[in-house]
Amino acid sequence: MNDDTALIAIDWGTTSARAYRLGAGGRVLDERSAPLGIQQVRDGAFAAAFASLLGPWQGLAVPRLACGMIGSRQGWVEASYRACPVAISALAGDLTHTPGREMAIVSGITCRDDSGVPDVMRGEETQIVGLVDETSDASLVVQPGTHSKWTLVRRDPAQGAIIHRFATYMTGETFAVLRDHSILGRLMRPAETFEREAFERGARRAIASRSGGEILHQIFGARALGLFEEIAPESIADYLSGMLIGAEVAAGARWAGQASDEDALWLAGSEVLCMRYALALRLVDRHARIAPSDVAARGLWRIALHAGLVKG
Amino acid sequence: MNDDTALIAIDWGTTSARAYRLGAGGRVLDERSAPLGIQQVRDGAFAAAFASLLGPWQGLAVPRLACGMIGSRQGWVEASYRACPVAISALAGDLTHTPGREMAIVSGITCRDDSGVPDVMRGEETQIVGLVDETSDASLVVQPGTHSKWTLVRRDPAQGAIIHRFATYMTGETFAVLRDHSILGRLMRPAETFEREAFERGARRAIASRSGGEILHQIFGARALGLFEEIAPESIADYLSGMLIGAEVAAGARWAGQASDEDALWLAGSEVLCMRYALALRLVDRHARIAPSDVAARGLWRIALHAGLVKG
Questions:
Q1: Which CATH number fits the domain that encloses residue A105?
Q2: Domain range for residue A199?
Q3: Which of A66, B247, B291, B304 has a CA-to-CA distance to B143 between 20 and 30 Å?
Q4: B303: closest CA among B101, B9, B4?
Q5: Which chain A positions have a beta carbon within 8 Å of B171's beta carbon?
Q6: Chains A–B, number of C-beta pairs less than 8 Å apart
Q7: Cβ-count burial of B202 within 10 angstroms (0-12 exposed, 13-18 middle, 19+ buried)?
Q8: Is B289 helix (H, G, I), strand (E, B) or coil?
């Protein structure tokens, strides 16, 4: 097994961790996953979690490189944030090691919006690095999730792909807390299938709005429609999901600006979420390509190459 | 005591109930309150809750008129919804009685927005009826709360004050679920005083936005600012409150339209919330008057007058 392995790449997030055994050229030879996200690890027992995640790979004398929330303040060791614009070479030059040098961790990135308020990303930057290899031009990458990220990537003649700027939308978490803890959840009944019509109805409603707070009004519609039985209880959750994702997509498309109309638009994330976002993006006339599922492993390979941890 | 009493007016909401003993001309002689909102009453024991709320007033042989969530499907008996536009006389002509005729309940009201989605109100319409007596012209009434209401009132030569249309904003509940259940609450520390600067900073940020979903991005700023220690932990909650109320106020002012610039603008609700809304409204150049605290009692009196339950 050892002969083939060049790098162990680890995508270590809040709720789960996934390790890849990569061979020559970054080819995925094998992978292992565990429900050992940083929220699941008690009392800072990260070394034990690491041993459990790697299992039989522990003895392999190869570099290990990780990305994600494992580098946050609540993780194993805090890795810094690089300020945008950030080139891959800058990420590769700023790795943080765990106390026992079990592995290196890629930095997060940060940027500021027009009003000077900071934004942060940790883990998604590595997926983006794995993805931009696929495209030669500027691109817009949308990573749906608890905290969705919208990122503009530009190509610099000297430095290659540059993460130019990005914006986080708390869409997934807002949906979850409204569904689980607000009055909107009361009339909902679980659906066995995706209620596409309700989702698109919600998305269209949100996309048509022109003011920042209108979504606070629109979501109450999920309650009133339910009360008047003008929507099926099984459709309410997807109607709410449509409104929130529609609102994000409208704001994100505006944030990305005109420039991105001809750029590649990538969706990277869970299949189910990417499908929803692709539908909502179509309603604002954007056609998205779905990223391969192993972009984090590809990104870690590319950063390891730049850092000299592996040979190309 | 009986000699003076003309009406017992009851404002019965989700979390609490308040009863007023009204004399000639609707003057408040006395009031009683209890933590007996409909969510606190178990197994439909509303008659017992009613007896406890009224206490020594139970023996008074006078009409009893209630408004609020007590008339909802989860309340004592379901009162209907009148469709906007609604005149006071229409509310007075549509009272629902409890099974034992312990009291009558005012209808809720409903309207539809431009896209045909319904909205509902129950209790606030009675406060509005109590308030519009104060002003001779058209007015805009803002009732901050868990589900804030924005209402346009017009005056009809024949029917008097008409509740023209309204819109609900889930601002208070969205704030509460984000503070209590999302990542935004993690870095917050309780403040002993109102952090006005943080509130206005948040409100300005939200008011400047132009797209329905931008608020989903902006609220994440409360996290990133906290992470970078660019905001005090004691200020994060008021910064978030400012963003959400700012977003509502910007959307509400837009919803109300140009017509309302010269109309009376009323704020009716808890003193603490009205103060926050007045600050945010000032940032969009609107100056609000604060309603008296007993507008529900006044509204119930006026509806009772129209219904012939009391003499003027």
A1: 3.30.420.300
A2: 171-290
A3: B304
A4: B9
A5: 213, 216
A6: 189
A7: buried
A8: strand
